[in-house]
Amino acid sequence: MEVPQQLGSPGVSKWDIRHKIWDYMEANNLADFPRPVHHRIPNFKGSFEMSGSAQAWDVFDKAREVKVDPDKPLEGIRLAVLQARKALLVPTPRLRTGLFNRIIPPPGATKEMLRKCATSQGVRDYSVPVGLDAKVHVDLVVVGSVAVSEKGCRIGKGEGFADLEYAMMVSMGAVREDTVVVTAVHDCQVVDIPEDLLGDHDLTVDYILTPTRIIKTGCRYPKPQGILWHKISHEMLGKIPVLKNLRHREKQEGKDVALKDEQRDVPAAGKPVRVAKKSRPESCSFQDQASLSQASPEGGASPDSSPLPDAPVAVYVGSIPQGTRVGELKDALRQCHATPARLIWQGAQHRAFLNYDDKATADAAVVALQGLSLHGSPLRVELSRSQLSKTGSRPR
């Protein structure tokens, strides 16, 4: 078993690092319930006992309002916050009904009751929602991680909630420049992480707590400065209602809140002008779009209509190993600089289709993705023969 500290080699992906950490912790019996730790923020042995060192830490002592993720390994820190009579905020599960809740223990709560409040069940039973207009000033943010580097680069489990939650707190004014971000992990989770894996949406950390030490990262990478709307899709907006409220507020303030699948008429300052893509109905197949662009002789536009954009071109990705998640493929595509305009995921059929704006871009993507493999299995990558539009496929 390769030791996790050797993960920072060129070409490694976030998913490579995640799986090495998960495998290592399971193989060396470093994990506690729930197991297996794969696709989780790992609960590691000694996590609950770390609350003692956290309470004696001056950064913790100065904090008055603390936001702690609901992950199992952070249960001891949530208890320490409650025992110190600090305000404890936790994210709303999957952000379905809001951004976060405040834990309110019963009057005269015993230590045993506080311990219950710190559990996932207690979070459900003893919390009240915090509105976007509430005057919240978070001094300390505690997030879970799968891996973290001593330079402050952090990798979560791949869903992006911690990154988005922080960006949303910036948007509502709940965090400031001096808000400290901490993660708590086992020592084996502190590894080298290639800097080129860090995106502008990724949350970095100022301190790392482990069972044996407290690491001050001196992180030089900026934290998210707000919600990157150009990376938010309509699908995500529909799943996270609080995003709609924040988007409305920022639109009222005159900010650019165009989503990634919307037209962008005004280019960002200092960036090249891009031609806005015309929207197409989701039900329109690739074949239908191609026939629209060829509706008049020699491909010209009809006299009474404006020119139509080129039809998108699909790239077929097959032989995807069983158990692969769509996030793993997306991560690999980003590493190869082949991110599509739209991705259609058919994991049950071990395939996906990548929708690019034109054939030249699609051809370049096919070349860039040759030799790509996931979980050690090579993928089949080629231009789609049928320009797929199958019933039941899911845009991601």
Structural features:
12 helices; alpha+beta; eight-stranded mixed beta sheet; 396 residues; globular; five-stranded antiparallel beta sheet; disordered C terminus
Number of helices: 12
Q: Given the C-alpha coordinates, what overall shape results?
A: globular
State the share of residues found in helices, binned by percent: 25-40%
Number of E-type strands: 17
Mean pLDDT: 81
Computed Rg: 23 Å
Low-confidence stretches: 265-310, 387-395
Strand line-up of the largest beta sheet: 4-3-2-1-5-8-9-10
Major sheet attributes: 8 strands, mixed
- SS-derived structural category: alpha+beta
Q: Distance between termini?
A: 35 Å
Element-level helix/strand string: HHHEHEEHHEEEEHEEEHHHEHEEHEEEE
Report strand %.
15-25%
Task: Report on the architecture of this protein.
- The structure is a single chain.
- This protein has 396 residues and is of the alpha+beta class.
- It is built from twelve helices and 17 strands.
- It has helices spanning 14-27, 50-55, 58-62, 75-83, 111-117, 120-125, 161-171, 234-239, 241-252, 286-293, 326-335, 359-369; strands at 65-68, 87-91, 100-103, 127-130, 140-143, 147-148, 154-155, 180-184, 207-209, 214-216, 313-318, 342-346, 351-356, 373-374, 377-378, 380-383, 394-395.
- Helix 4 links the parallel strand 1 and strand 2.
- The protein is globular.
- Residues 265-310 and 387-395 have low confidence and may be disordered.
